[in-house]
């Protein structure tokens, strides 16, 4: 039985202010209408009014700050009853018509919480994501919603569809003059904007009727998923589709879009009412003529015209493909994948509503598995609280805010909504980046001797990332294919293995690079245009950076174009294996981290020892620096013992002398100054590199920065496709927390290698397990509280350098400018920062990073262990000295000392 519910609202927009509203019906209080007051705790029950359009007697706008800048609130009215007049997107005279707002729906009663994101009426500019944590220890449920600029993807899709078929899909876009797009209406409301879809579905209905006519051998078979079981129907002589004794006349287009008129009108018959949702869903999704059994598999949805392209496009724009786009979008086969984007549980603990599109698991289909349940929140006031609504008003790529928590929700709550409003005149419309003219920058004059090209001694199929990428990915898919019981998935897996095998052959035999197949993502054009500009080269005659990126992007296409393998991380098995192998360092750092946090807590309120703090800051950053010595793609033959040598405190101390450039004091001063100035939000961004142990140490650093007060928010930037073998995906974050949630199970369960070698893992001591569990408790609280955010962006897997960032990903660039410090991890990010050019090693770092240097507005800190030729910022003569130590003559073109990860640079640039 549900007795209480904690609700957290998170504003992850760039808006100065978001207003949240929670409205609903109190089931156990005579079904009275109710609102949560602006304090987020007290309930307001509107009293009877005599006049239509009376205002609310209480302020019910919950501020989600953090800054008190003006933005428009929503306006609710009362009519006699009292009845609540909620905001309308269809009435142009409604005071909310030009307000950017969104809502989520939920039901909270004694049995359960049920909530979803709804697009049944419109797509808002303001995205919403939902997260539900339960008391029973079950998996965290998460619905990602759209990215911050998801509405722009919807608009692009509707405009393209209108150009293809001539129907007014583009008329559904609501865009006030001189403003960004405000919302997109569902076709059910097309006439509100002067558009009509009359006659749209009728040709399709005629085809369906013809297939199932009395003269045809075919029948519709519907699994009612109720007492009636499977029932069959066909068209009779009166031109009615008949199931049992229930006739269904031909639906019109309006009937199909609306799902509640004509043959889809519900009535007293439970049998008929069990057929209606499944019949209506099959028409919406144009699944008829593909199969005869319903509900059908998602592979049959929206595959033939005419179909509801609004639904298709909106589902594609949602990061996990989920959301209610029509009334019966929750119809699915028994055991099938949910399409509706719901979260529900009979034992809800914490319900999180995030607005802004930045707490979602962005990943173009690579959304992670559920997080393990976080620890219970601190004991909450038992005062009556309730679900909340949130206010829109956010430019696309946000700065996150702290959540507001509303504990102890009254179980008398029934149907409710979380609404959000903000000014429609906010800046930042999510406009597309500048066109191709600025995509391919030249390197400055000092680097005109060219980009690094492939060398025979670094050939992909001999030593580099490509060998591991191709060989292990082929093996991984092959093994997974033959574990599947699904014949269709097995066949797809074989096809992917063949494609990866052909790719490997092309690299080994220096074949010409071919255009990447269109899998629906915009970076395909970027890759293919650059390939054309490069003259369609072969593998050994193209610059190193482009062909490495091309390899992994092309591999990704084989999976993204499949049906059953879209979400598959071909490198996940290797990442987990390597993290298990890092056990000694993980245990050591867990104990060290716990001690540091205890010391910080004990020192609160006492005079600060800034010298000690700076030393500790440098230690944390150096741990983070050397963590990427576990880069899977370049250390392919290391034994378990070798990995241990790369990690651990003694190795770190010995390695300090190998840091050739160390600008950590400059970075510390930036963060210390921001804290001294009392800035409410002190943000650090980390552009991630490797998963496993390196992600572990990244979170060590993030937790330290937040605990010490050097930051109030840490934004992590993972990739959104499997990249360079070991790079972090959002799913790797979840996998890491899942491992720490039950460390004994993770480390003491024999791995595949252990089983083959008949080895039993050494058990963890109680203290070791306790230290690791502490990490899980701490990090999951930081994540659930909105202090640690995941924010992928497709730009990180574009080809070429980060010199393009201000032009190709303008919104991302502007967002990074709001951060106090942006940390770029690892070798590849360093190469991209410096354009992967043949700089003289003494070239200043601030010069080599071009438009991201002084005056850019971005404070850059690069943590890099050297694994490729490009190095800058060294003292004159140091490069020659290192070449001589390595056995190479100083005049040699090869900088071999920079290939093995022995040396490191920590370089800082102040962009302000």
From TrEMBL:
Note the InterPro entries from the entry. Answer: ARMT-1-like_metal-bd_sf, ARMT1, ARMT1-like_metal-bd, Glyco_hydro_64, Glyco_hydro_64_N_2, Osmotin/thaumatin-like_sf
Which part of the chain is the GH64 domain? 1-342
List the catalysed reactions. beta-D-fructose 1-phosphate + H2O = D-fructose + phosphate; beta-D-fructose 6-phosphate = dihydroxyacetone + D-glyceraldehyde 3-phosphate
Write down the Pfam families for this protein, in alphabetical order.
ARMT1-like_dom, Glyco_hydro_64
Q: Which GO terms describe its cellular component?
A: nucleus
Q: Which cofactor does it need?
A: Ni(2+); Mn(2+)
A GO MF term: phosphatase activity
Please give the residue ranges the record annotates as the region Disordered.
Answer: 364-437
Q: What name does the UniProt record give this protein?
A: Hairy/enhancer-of-split with YRPW motif protein 2
Q: Which family does it belong to?
A: Belongs to the damage-control phosphatase family. Sugar phosphate phosphatase III subfamily.
Instruction: For this UniProt record, give its keywords in alphabetical order, as a comma-separated list.
Output: Hydrolase, Manganese, Metal-binding
Q: Provide the GO biological process annotations.
A: DNA damage response
């Amino acid at each position: 039985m549900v007795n209480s519910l904690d609700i957290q609202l998170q504003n992850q927009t760039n808006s100065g202010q978001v207003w949240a509203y929670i409205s609903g019906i109190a089931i156990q209080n005579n079904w009275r209408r109710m609102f949560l007051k602006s304090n987020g705790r007290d309930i307001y029950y509107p009293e009877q009014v005599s006049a239509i359009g009376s205002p609310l007697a209480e302020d019910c706008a919950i501020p989600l700050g953090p800054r008190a800048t003006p933005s428009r609130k929503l306006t609710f009215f009362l009519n006699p009853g009292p009845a609540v007049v909620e905001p309308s997107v269809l009435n142009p005279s409604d005071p909310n018509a030009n307000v950017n707002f969104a809502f989520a729906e939920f039901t909270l009663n004694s049995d359960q919480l049920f909530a979803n994101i709804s697009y049944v009426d419109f797509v808002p500019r303001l995205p919403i994501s939902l997260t539900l944590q339960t008391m029973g220890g079950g998996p965290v449920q998460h619905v990602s919603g759209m990215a911050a600029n998801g509405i722009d993807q919807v608009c692009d899709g509707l405009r393209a569809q209108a150009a293809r078929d001539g129907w007014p899909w583009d008329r559904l876009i609501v865009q006030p003059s001189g403003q960004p797009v405000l919302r997109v209406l569902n076709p059910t409301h097309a006439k509100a904007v002067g558009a009509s879809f009359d006659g749209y579905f009728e040709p399709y209905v005629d085809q369906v009727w013809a297939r199932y006519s009395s003269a045809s051998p075919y029948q519709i078979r519907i699994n009612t998923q109720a007492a009636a079981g499977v029932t069959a129907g066909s068209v009779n002589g009166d031109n009615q589709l008949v199931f049992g004794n229930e006739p269904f006349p031909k639906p019109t287009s309006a009937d199909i879009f609306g799902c509640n008129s004509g043959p889809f009108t519900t009535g007293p018959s439970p049998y008929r009412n069990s057929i209606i949702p499944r019949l209506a869903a099959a028409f919406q999704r144009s699944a008829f003529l593909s199969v005869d059994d319903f509900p059908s598999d998602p592979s049959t949805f929206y595959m033939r015209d005419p179909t509801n392209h609004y639904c298709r496009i909106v589902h594609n724009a949602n990061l996990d493909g989920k959301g209610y786009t029509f009334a019966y979008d929750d119809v699915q086969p028994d055991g099938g994948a949910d399409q509706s984007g719901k979260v529900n549980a009979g034992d809800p603990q914490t319900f999180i509503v995030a607005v802004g599109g930045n707490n979602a698991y962005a990943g173009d289909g690579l959304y992670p598995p559920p997080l393990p349940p976080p620890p219970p929140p601190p004991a909450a006031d038992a005062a009556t609280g309730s679900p909340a609504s949130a206010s829109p008003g956010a430019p696309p790529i946000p700065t996150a805010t702290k959540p507001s928590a509303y504990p102890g929700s009254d179980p008398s709550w029934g149907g409710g909504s979380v609404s959000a409003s903000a000014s429609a005149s906010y800046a930042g419309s999510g406009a597309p980046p500048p066109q191709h003219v600025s995509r391919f920058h030249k390197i400055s004059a000092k680097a005109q001797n060219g980009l690094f090209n492939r060398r025979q001694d670094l050939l992909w199929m001999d030593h580099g990332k490509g060998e591991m990428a191709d060989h292990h990915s082929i093996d991984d898919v092959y093994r997974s294919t033959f574990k599947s019981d699904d014949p269709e998935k097995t066949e797809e897996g074989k096809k992917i293995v063949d494609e990866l095998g052909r790719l490997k052959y092309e690299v080994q035999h220096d074949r010409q690079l071919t255009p990447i197949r269109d899998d629906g993502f915009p970076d395909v054009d970027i890759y293919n245009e650059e390939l054309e500009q490069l003259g369609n080269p072969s593998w050994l005659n193209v610059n190193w950076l482009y062909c490495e990126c091309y390899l992994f992007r092309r591999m990704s296409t084989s999976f993204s174009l499949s049906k059953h393998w879209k979400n598959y991380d071909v490198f996940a098995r290797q990442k987990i294996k390597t993290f298990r192998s890092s056990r000694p360092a993980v245990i050591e750092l867990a104990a060290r981290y716990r001690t540091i946090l205890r010391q910080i807590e004990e020192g609160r309120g006492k005079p600060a020892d800034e010298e000690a703090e700076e030393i500790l800051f440098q230690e944390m950053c150096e741990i983070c620096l050397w963590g990427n010595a576990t880069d899977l793609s370049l250390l392919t033959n290391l034994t378990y013992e070798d990995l241990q040598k790369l990690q651990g405190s003694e190795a770190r101390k010995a390695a300090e002398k190998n840091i050739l450039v160390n600008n950590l004091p400059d970075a510390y001063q930036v963060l210390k100054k921001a804290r001294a100035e009392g800035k409410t939000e002190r943000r650090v961004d980390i552009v991630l590199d490797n998963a496993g142990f390196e992600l572990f140490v990244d979170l060590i650093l993030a937790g330290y920065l937040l605990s010490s007060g050097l930051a109030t928010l840490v934004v992590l930037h993972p990739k959104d496709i499997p990249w360079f073998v070991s790079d972090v995906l959002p799913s790797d974050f979840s996998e890491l927390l899942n491992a720490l949630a039950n460390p004994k199970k993770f480390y003491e369960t024999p791995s595949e290698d252990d089983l083959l070698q008949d080895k039993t893992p050494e058990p963890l001591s109680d203290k070791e397990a306790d230290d690791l569990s502490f990490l899980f408790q701490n990090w999951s609280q930081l994540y659930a509280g909105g202090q640690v955010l995941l924010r992928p962006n497709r730009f990180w897997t574009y080809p070429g350098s980060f010199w393009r960032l201000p032009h190709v990903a303008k919104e991302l660039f502007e967002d990074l400018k709001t951060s106090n410090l942006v940390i770029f991890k690892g070798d590849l990010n360093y190469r991209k920062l410096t354009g992967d050019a043949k700089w003289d090693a003494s070239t200043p770092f601030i010069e080599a990073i071009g438009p991201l240097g002084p005056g850019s507005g971005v404070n850059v800190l690069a943590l890099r262990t050297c694994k490729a030729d490009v190095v800058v910022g060294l003292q004159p003569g140091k490069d020659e000295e290192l070449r001589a130590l390595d056995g190479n003559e100083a005049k040699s073109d090869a900088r071999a000392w920079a290939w093995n990860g022995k040396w490191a640079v920590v370089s800082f640039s102040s962009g302000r």
